[in-house]
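Notes to self after the call with IL:
- keep both proteins in one doc
- input above output, always
- annotate only the second one for now

Protein 1:
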Amino acid sequence: MTLSRVSIVSGRRSFLATTTLSAAAVALLAGRDVLAASHTGAKMDAGADVNILNVALGLEHEGIAAYQLGAQSGLLQKPVLGVATRFQADHKEHRDTLAGAIRKLGGKPVEEKPLADYAKALKADTLKSQNDILELASRLELGATNAYLGVIPSFKDAQLAKVAARLAADETMHWTLLNQTLGKPLPAGGMPFGA
């Protein structure tokens, strides 16, 4: 299925905003196996959690591919290329964390698609400048920020909310640096994210 850039951003935001991971799944994401075990006394719906985590994993695959397309385009100049590579490494860490949690829940992580599929979905053929690539990356990072912020209110355990907040903070850092590089002003208002 080919996604437009708009649906990619709204997909990243809505997949977490409209669903709730079990406390055990989020504990696994945080690398807290003991905490996860304490939340599985009642049978958790691991299948639903695996599906949600696989959506997140699919979006991380897409983010990795977007940075790969940007890096190999020849359009990114130093030091922007170095920053893009760093952000891609962050998303690879997110990917590995999500895949590990899916396996611990007994699921099979969704596989990465061929780079050509992501190029088509992201309309890489329309990216003609460094700014075009940065604009795309900025939109994807904003979508990720809002997705992770959207899940925070569903947690009763402060430690679990902290995990989602840390992921959101990472995505916000990426978005902020990309927008600074693009020369965009700070967003208006005191709470521009997660709305």
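Protein 2 (the one to annotate):
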Amino acid sequence: MKLTIALISAASILTFSGQANAADAPTDPQIAHIAYTAGNLDIAAGKQALARSHDKTVRAFAQEMVRDHQAVNDKALALVKKLHVTPEDNATSKGLTKAADATRSKLSHLNGRAFDKAYIENEVAYHKTVNGALEGTLIPSAKNGELKSLLETGLNLFREHQAHAEQVARAFK
């Protein structure tokens, strides 16, 4: 059973129908909300894994996700407060949340190795999706230099997360 089907729809949402023109590009408040939402969703997924998994490697990965995404989200909150920007909910944030909720629901019915395998496969897909959106849409669309810099820092970290998730996933093949 592939749990990443929900993420495929999220990927299509995040790509903004391929290359978005400037008029369709997300605004900085929307970008801030998308990035913060994506981080919160991975924190929730990590917490679910910590509650359900007994695999040492999966648990260590989940702890890393919770720690790192919380740290980036804390920096994002500090930045939006400094800039007096109110993150703006949008269709992308809502689509990500809907897809992640569906995935967490499906994962909640799995146990043991089946859960671990599905969780880590989802993490690989999720990081690929979010990293692609950061690289192809969110960073290029960001107007504020500090926001762009934070997104670039996040992208570097999340690329490491993707590589780590791919490494862990190899153990479940």
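Annotation: Helices lie at 5-14, 28-52, 56-83, 91-107, 112-141, 145-170. The CA atoms of residues 37 and 93 lie 6 Å apart.
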